[in-house]
Specification:
Blueprint lengths: L1 H6 L9 H9 L20 H8 L4 H17 L3 H9 L8 H17 L3 H12 L5 H15 L4 H5 L11 H12 L4 H14 L9 H8 L7 E6 L6 H16 L7 E6 L8 H7 L4 E3 L4 H10 L6 E3 L12 E3 L4 H14 L5 E6 L2 H14 L8 E5 L2 H11 L9 E4 L3 H14 L8 E4 L10 H6 L4 E4 L17 H25 L5 E2 L4 E4 L5 E4 L1 E6 L2 E4 L1
Helix pairs in contact: 3-4, 4-5, 4-6, 5-6, 6-7, 7-8, 8-10, 10-11, 11-12, 13-21, 16-17, 18-19
Pfam family, one: LppC
Keywords: Membrane
GO molecular function, one term: enzyme regulator activity
């Protein structure tokens, strides 16, 4: 209890500066391949058609089983769909029914993560499609599905019997994956693929032709639109510092950098400034209200890296969003827990909007992989930490095997101490996971000793040994914001290539970057763990 009492001397509900930043500057996205299957009119339940098929034979039975599988897919019952399809005599199907049959097989295999089989099903369907535009559409879907297969599966696909015309598409998917980090080589390999497959030139997806013909125009004139005075001037200066440092260490350092203080020049003046100064790329705004104004106005057509989110829909493909996201961190915590065979998590959060958003993001991600709904403990004060944990561990039934904690480091230390105090004898200690809010990377030796075994998610640049030795910023909160500047510089030349090739990823200061839906930059954050008084990167 002495350790607990010493922890209670802290101000438990003052979150570190960067959490304030995430909440105030940051607002509140799995891709699925859509496959067109002819739709039945007034489709009934799968069980209706399965029962009906029992008394039928021949073509009528096949047609009814096709309806059963289509209804089952609509019901998200892929086992019933698979069983229905397995009873169909393929040789007794019409040409159109064969297209439907292979489309539905593709959906079932895709759901079961048999991606190459799923693509092969669509390749089989292509044999019965006469229209060239439909063939092109179908091959586009084949390549989309192959994107989900890993390099090992694609490389070893020759060990299986597939449609012979699937082979060049597997090779193309392999090219896109293997050379994602070298765009020039990627272009060369795609151009050679086109030479090797002249019969496919009229059905190649447009983005493949775009990669083949792409010539970077060489953006030179960059405008950073940041708060350089006023309330958020420190954050704006941090981003500018990170951006300029990254430029100074890059081979591509010929950019002309222009800066405008967003607290002095309104968003409404940006279009004329961009035109008059021949700006090629805009980085910013940072503040949420300015982002909303820019998005709503739809007045900027040059490539733009928005440093915050907006509730306004982006109706402009030139606008991309890159920001730190506590919700994304929470979702990644849930994914890691499940991979580490945790099945009964609890979530401990401050009873605030920030806490609610993070808990909801965790829960949404967790329920995609588990039927167990995690317990959420909302904490309003120090006494509640004690009372709620004491009540939770009162019995031995349904004790958690993992804890996701959101709050400051003092709260985490207190929570860990109470768990150790109240956990029933004979029950294994639950693994504790935390996000950036705990600021574990800025801990004393005494604190690290008390945080033994805690795992945490944070920005890559903050992990031991990751910060460039000559970068002058050492304050962890300033460094956290500077990371946005580091990665914004890298994204200027990479975003267009990322749009063209879905496999491209960048090892950035914030984490591993990739392009998601609606031109949102997705960040895969890094993991660390406290062991024997040291922070070890996982």
């Amino acid at each position: 209890m002495e350790k607990i009492m010493s922890i209670r001397m802290f101000n438990f509900f003052v979150l570190p500066f960067f959490v304030f930043l995430l909440f105030n500057l940051n607002g509140c996205s799995s891709n699925k391949v859509q496959q067109d299957v002819p739709k039945a009119v007034n489709l009934k339940s799968s069980s209706f058609y399965i029962n009906q098929a029992k008394s039928l034979s021949g073509k009528k039975k096949n047609s009814t089983l096709l309806l059963a599988s289509q209804a089952a897919i609509k019901e998200q019952n892929f086992k019933i769909a698979s069983d229905a399809l397995s009873q169909i005599d393929e040789s007794n199907l019409s040409q159109n029914d064969k297209i439907v049959y292979y489309n539905q097989l593709s959906k079932v295999n895709f759901q079961n993560k048999n991606y190459i089989k799923s693509a092969n099903n669509l390749a089989s369907a292509n044999s019965f499609i006469d229209d060239t535009s439909q063939k092109k559409k179908n091959w586009n879907k084949v390549l989309e599905i192959l994107h989900y297969a890993d390099i090992f599966s694609l490389t070893n696909s020759h060990n299986n019997v597939y449609q012979s015309d699937l082979s060049p598409w597997i090779n193309l998917a392999l090219i896109q994956k293997e050379y994602a980090d070298n765009f020039e080589v990627l272009q060369t390999k795609i151009n050679q693929w086109k030479v090797d497959n002249p019969s496919l030139l009229n059905v190649i997806p447009e983005n493949i032709n775009t990669i083949s013909n792409y010539n970077d125009g060489g953006a030179q004139n960059i405008l950073l639109y940041l708060p350089l005075s006023g309330k958020y001037s420190r954050q704006g200066q941090d981003i500018l510092s990170g951006f300029k440092y990254k430029q100074s260490t890059s081979l591509n350092n010929t950019y002309q950098i222009n800066t405008i203080d967003s607290n002095k020049i309104p968003v409404s003046q940006l279009p004329s400034i961009i035109q008059n100064q021949n700006i090629d790329v805009l980085v910013g705004p940072l503040q949420k209200d300015n982002v909303s104004k820019l998005v709503k106005s739809n007045s900027v057509s040059i490539p733009t890296i928005l440093l915050n989110t907006s509730k306004e829909p982006k109706n402009n493909t030139s606008l991309c969003t890159f920001t730190l996201s506590p919700e994304k961190q929470a979702a990644q915590v849930a994914q890691k827990m499940f991979k580490e065979n945790k099945f009964r998590p609890i979530v401990i959060v401050p009873d605030t909007n920030f806490g609610y958003r993070s808990a909801q993001a965790f829960k949404n991600s967790w329920l995609k992989v588990s039927n167990f709904s995690p317990i959420v403990l909302k904490i309003k004060g120090n006494n509640q930490i004690q009372s709620k944990l004491k009540a939770l561990f009162k019995g031995k039934t349904n004790t958690p095997d993992s804890v996701f904690f959101i709050g400051n480091k003092s709260q985490l230390l207190l929570t860990k101490a109470y768990i150790e105090l109240y956990l029933p004898a004979g029950i294994n200690q639950p693994q504790i996971y935390s996000n950036s809010s705990t600021n574990i990377l800025n801990s004393s030796q005494s604190e690290l000793k008390d945080l033994q075994n805690v795992k945490f998610i944070d920005l890559s640049i903050l992990m031991p040994g990751a910060k460039p030795s000559d970068y002058p910023v050492n304050n962890i909160n300033d460094l956290r914001v500077s990371a946005l500047g580091f990665d914004s510089f890298s994204l200027i030349s990479a975003i267009q290539e990322m749009k063209l090739n879905p496999y491209i990823q960048i090892n950035g200061a914030t984490g591993k970057l990739s392009l998601g839906n609606d031109c949102n930059i997705e960040t895969q954050y890094s993991w660390g763990q406290v062991r024997s008084g040291q922070i070890i990167k996982q």
